[in-house]
DNA sequence: TAAGCTCTCTACAACGTTGCACACGGCGGT
DNA sequence: ACCGCCGTGTGCAACGTTGTAGAGAGCTTA
């Protein structure tokens, strides 16, 4: 039961060999206690200037750098946050990640990225993952989780949801105004005289996801204008990649239904739609106007330049990091719901 | 806003209140020692089945999950690696990051992303950063550091350089075959009968960076074909964004120099070039053929589809992670230099 | 002169985990 | 009977850091 601690002392190591310098090494060199070195490192004020100098010199000599892991263990704070997105290669998320990393950096944080690959199981696993222990909080942009999964997001790790407000009001959300923006996009097309507006990117039956909300905005605009919604104009596209935009648009064309505009639910789909239209000999915007959504870089120099919605990605990133840090600082506080503004970016395609 | 927490002692919490369960809690509940729980968690074989069951039940009851930070402190391994890229919004790097994250995940690792924003100081700082302590190794894609900075990359953290082999042979590199691929791209254009081939993306004076190497491949192809290199066909573009591709190409057009092909040093530049050419009334590929480099998603559905070089991004990501893990396992081993293969992807633009 | 204060510095204990050494009981072989 | 071994389980120490409590020196104040 008890161990006699006879045997060799642990001092065998000839001091500094491998590994980085620690507080202990600095303390030994400077002839002070470990804690004093720690105090110097952390700018504790009550250290005699001469002592401070000696310590600082030792720090330089040994090129000491604090071990963040040990600090984390002690303090409970890692200085890192996780960003979970469906797929980084989608321009919207790449640009979002870019902005989040910048925003986090300004606040001294670093970002770990997880991809959920539009796989439900991965979204579920992520929330339960021990990985979250490596991180102070999570920014999560769910793609397939829905309200029926509300229980899953009740986790201990501070969490901010991005995208749309679909869960408990008790969870922080930072969202774009999907319905209003989609409505504005549709109204812009109507205002330009288009009356047969197809949509590309529909998820049949979805109500509360991105596709559902944007479709709702579209419906609202039409209804408000007294135009009947024609479901034959719905282009279904599960994924929002170029290929799907192209295929959904071809399907619409082949179906023979008449339309003079396409409202694509993101820019990538819109570019795919343009491709399909031009391949079929229809001019954009003369024959068919095309409207995107996202204002990603790829639409800026396309031909024709893509008219689209700027959903305020940068402010989303900023707010998301702020809200998350706030939540980390103050776990008990009331949930915040931030909705950032949007704008219609007019270029040539519509 | 703040509450004075006078009064109650911190022990008021009736055990499990805040914080997650630890080995200690599980041990207490299962009536065994901490170490035994640890043994169960780590699949140590010599645990009696009945004991194991009891412990596992306690683990489930308390929803115990190991604290990765503590593990890290103990073991020295974090299970994370850093990927440093110039800018995540550039499609090449977004897709690279995507692939790196996938490759890392297959090996049980998670990825932290740093952006250097093509800022020299940030590249320098990154290498010296304490942040690296949070990570087992670094995949670094330098943009502006050059051979003159060789001293800077002598760091303790395991490091693999991506892009081109420009540093000490004593450092691991995973690179694409820039010279050979650019030569193949140029030869393809020559083979198609083009003789006045402009290049877009030149960095004047650069020898050993991406731009320099691709320009070398271009030169080699021309020289081998007995065609003189005409510097008036060099389109300078510092950044490789759509805008710069467009502007550089406009400059070429405005200069009045004659050309029947453009070899852009990446796909984004190529798309910018196509935009400029079409705006100027030149047909692609009839008047001017356009060749890109990267085979990023954006070129797949552009109009016309972009002919380009596939540099083997996926294999780069795979190899990079493998080489890095290898380096982490075995610090003393000889440096490895992996060059992955490439291919010419023919679509419509050339 | 004693009490009290400030300044400077220190020892100790924890954060949660795992490697190490060992204790204990039973078993098989000599 | 003895030895050694195997299977099972334990306690201790350590990873590098920081919060807390307090020690000792020098100063002021009554």
Principal-axis shape of chain A equals elongated
- What is the SS-derived class of chain A? alpha/beta
**Mean residue pLDDT of chain A:** 89
Task: Outline the low-pLDDT stretches of chain A.
Answer: 1-17
Strand order of the largest sheet of chain A: 2-1-3-4-5-11
* Biggest beta-sheet profile of chain A: 6 strands, parallel
Order of helices and strands of chain A: HHHHEHEHEEEHEHEHEHEEHEE
Radius of gyration of chain A: 27 Å
The end-to-end span of chain A amounts to 81 Å
Features:
homodimer, 350 residues, alpha/beta, 434 Repressor (Amino-terminal Domain), Rossmann fold, six-stranded parallel β-sheet, 11 helices, elongated, DNA-binding
Concise description?
The structure is a homodimer of 350-residue chains. Chain A has eleven helices and twelve strands.
